[in-house]
Write a structure and sequence with these properties.
Number of domains: 4
Helix content: 40-55%
Largest sheet: 9 strands, mixed
CATH architecture of the largest domain: 3-Layer(aba) Sandwich
CATH topology of the largest domain: Rossmann fold
Distance between the termini: 80 Å
Number of helices: 26
CATH class of the largest domain: Alpha Beta
Shape: elongated
Length: 748
Amino acid sequence: MAKSRRPRRIDKPTTDLTSLLAELRANFSNEALGLVFFLLGGYFGFTFLASSDGVSWIERMLGSTAFLAIVGLLLLGAVLMLGERAGYWNPQAIVGGELLLLGLAGFAFAQANSAVDWTPPVDGSSGGLLGWSVGSLLVSLLGRWPGGLVALILTGAGLYLLIRHTPLIYAVGYAQRWLTPLGLLTYFGISQPSTARQTSGELLPPLPVTPTRSRPARPDPATVQAALPPMPEAPAAEKPKRSAIPKRPSPTPAQNKLQPVRSTGNLPPTDFLTEDSGQYGSRDTAEVGKLIEETLADFDIPVQVVNVESGPTVTQFGVKPLYIVRGGQQRKVRVSRIVNLADDLALALAAPAVRIEAPVPGYPYVGIEVPNTDKIDVGMRGILESALMQSKGGLLPLALGRDTAGAPVISDLSRAPHLLIAGSTGSGKSVCINAIIVSLLMHHGPESLRFVMVDPKMVELPGYNGIPHMIGNAITEVDQVTGALAWLLLQMDDRYQTFRELKIRNIASYNELAAKQKELPPLPYLVLVVDELADLMMTAPEEIERQLVRLAQMSRAVGIHLILATQRPSVDVVTGLIKANFPTRIAFAVTSQIDSRVILDTPGAERLLGRGDMLFMRPDSAKLARVQGCWVSDGEIQKVVEFWKKRDAEENPDGPKVKIAPWLGLMERMEDEDELLLDAIDAVRGQKTCNTSFLQRKLAIGYPKAARLMEQLEAKGVVGPDMGGGKGREVLLKEEEEGEDDEEGLFE
């Protein structure tokens, strides 16, 4: 038997004529039944319209409900013929239609007749023969009004089944979504239902197009495995169900015991931010899924689309590999064969790029991510108000965006503990940094969070100057970065010294202790934001790398966190030491697979679509998450900045208007020490030996400063080590004429 180029609708391949007949019966029974119902509806409609005496036989049978029955038969036939393409239908809908028809016919007879008339009507009145039979039975047993009430109950039950087991359920969901904010449903005690599946029973099934923002429940792995030939079963972890998005309450210390220094005052309202539509996916997913199956079948790879999830940027098709027969044996399709056909799928789907996740973690299928025809901007408001943010936001919550199913994606910077962002020009790095900063500003006041910002481009981060969270202004001159990093290192050392004296381990424990002991001031979190790392690494790569690596290695426990971004992901910018200390990374669209490997140690970023499309690497997950980043406009940023400026002016009316960065004084002291170092070199030049007391006398300085200068002279090779026994140190710089050249070499 020749191989078919189209995948079969059942899993087991055909081996003989008996199995072929079974396939035909299984695949076409519903279509044939649907055709019969559709033809019956058409015939009844024709007799209803073409009756010569004015009353057709169908009208005599059903009375005023004849038209409803005809429409129901036509609709039921069409649904059975279309199958999965018709969307969500259930066999219970047929029972609902029958109950609705019986109830309406019986109620019509009960309202028209106060007593039982056992003479069958022939004029089609009062529900016809069907209404006469049902209504007579109800009226004779219960009476006119109780019988009519029972008929209404049957009508309501039928209507409920039709709504629950047909696409009408989505119309009710949208009605509740729009009416709940108006208070109309709340007045009657009806709350807005969750868009996710209920724990007591499934309310909505998986659809070809995801109609809501939340992720639809994936098919049960046991159900999927049951359709396959016998093979060793592997347990699949079930993802937690997503809950509805409540309104964000005002943060209080009681909500999160891990945040004792979280602002208890007024925070910026979420009304400053915009909300996205929440409806994703613009392609005909049924047709795209069919095209994926046909394309892979052309390469002798039978698959079946078992799940579809639509997000703001891409739609993920869950593809289950089927079995092929070779040499009389069934063999399952290798996942690697599907992965290698990404370019062929992109060509068949006319898509700019197709990314394949093989497999989807926790589920027995491969995820094929196809770009949507229309991308939807993701607003931050819905993420901040989500239940996920309220329950798992953490100490330093970051609203990153939404995944391939439209579900919120968040992270906790305190657990990251540092973040590395990389991507080509225009891919969305600066927008992501602004979204991160705004997310932190929406949750923390200046008493619990402070920023140190570095922006060599001078256009993105200076807009935050003036808010009380800023330490100084955004650094735009590269030569000040070294001083800022040195100041952060001093802060880290001071905090560690304090923790050692108090016998505590981290900043959370310190703030808990400070809440109990009023004499201890709370320590705010310090976040360093660098918008362009490449500019810093070009000026002083060794010094900058040394300071950043030391901060990244030791600063987590004291509440200092780093966010680095670069548009040049090369090995000389994103070095091995930096990558090793930045386990949390975000990769935007890059130009080559080499850049993707530099950022993520794996390919994939070269297939991203740009404009905020990113791959998110978590430190606690081996799989990359595809996320569409939040879009925060300049107007939204300005509203948040003005809010904090206004609050700072109200709380500190007499405060300084110009804030001086503390590292500027540190840089001056460092420059003074450099000048003293030059004087010390001149003092020891020409001497055979020297000691600390000699520098004290010559430079008129104290012993501690003289001792530090002596250590610096030894490090630079001017003097040798201490010989002991009061002999001092040997001076290695002796000749006057060689002094100038040697001095220039020391400070290069």
